[in-house]
Amino acid sequence: MPAARPTVGSLLTLAAAGVFAINGTVSTLALQAGIPPTNLTALRCTGAAIALVVGLAIVSPRRLRLRRREVPLIAVLGVVGIAMTQFLFYVAIDGRLPVGIALVFEMTAPVFIALYVWLVRREQVRSRLWLALALSLGGLVLVAEVWEGGGSLDPVGVAVALTAALCLATYYLVGERSTADRDPVALTAWSFVAAAVFWAIAAPWWRFDAGVLGERVPVSLGDVLLPAWVLVGWIAVLGAAVPFWLSLAALRHLPPTTAGILATAEPVLASIVAWLWVEQVLTPWQIAGGAVVLAGIVLAQTARTAAAPAPVPETVPS
């Protein structure tokens, strides 16, 4: 087994965060082009599943072997952890929340995880959990600007983004507890397959007007128009399959906690991309609140006394 190279792992994690960050704005453009969140999620999951499965089939087909007893686990990871997390994120950014703010809410998953293992599993946690919780709650209050007539953010968007955080927490908890002996790349590929099957049932293809994919849509780059299928192709391949592969590759060189902390760069990068590309401007209070929340997330990442295995990438599948 090759020696771990922390610098390589850090660069891979940051690269994954950067690609995920760009994907937030590309997804916003696709939603603005008229593709509903259900269909956009279905297209992303299906495209990523095809890319990952075909890639493994070419490189190492043995890794795609699936045991019958693994099917329920993969169904949970795919439906709750990937399909619902991504769908809820799209609902949140579909005219409700700025991309960076939605990611800040979604990335509170480690706080929920630490609380769960303390309350339910009765694991010991470090005292920093309480500071992490206080920072996260205080930061979210600033992000929402609750003093502005009850809050400056769409309440449905906030509720949806927090639900996405719960789904993401489930993804990590189920993955770390039940799949430590499973090939993480194959696990991710099959999870996307499960997500694709779920959306094929929940949002049947025959109800989707595929003609919208051929329409040329503005992409907020001067007068440039691109077919909608180009955006969808980016979202499926460069916005899902590639960053997940980068995240998994990084875990060969970094402990999952370190990778998770580095991944908190994603909402920062996503906010910068959205600001430069589609002029999503955050207020100073929202920027300060986001920074406070990220500090809480970093503390929550290190609150557990026992390190858990990480068969799934420690990044947000947004």
Topology at a glance:
Elements: H1 6-32, H2 37-59, H3 71-93, H4 99-106, H5 109-119, H6 128-144, H7 155-178, H8 184-202, E1 216-218, E2 225-227, H9 228-250, H10 256-262, H11 265-278, H12 284-301
Antiparallel strand pairs: 1-2
How would you summarize what this structure contains?
The chain has 318 residues and is mainly alpha-helical.
Q: How would you describe the overall organization of this protein?
A:
The protein is mainly α and about 325 residues long. The protein has one domain. Helices cover about 65% and strands about 0% of the residues. It is built from twelve helices and two strands. The chain has a two-stranded antiparallel sheet with strand order 1-2. Helix 3 crosses helix 8 (about 185-200) and helix 5 runs parallel beside helix 12. The radius of gyration is 19 Å and the shape is globular.
Question: Any descriptors?
Answer:
318 residues; mainly alpha; single chain; two-stranded antiparallel sheet; 67% helix; 2 strands
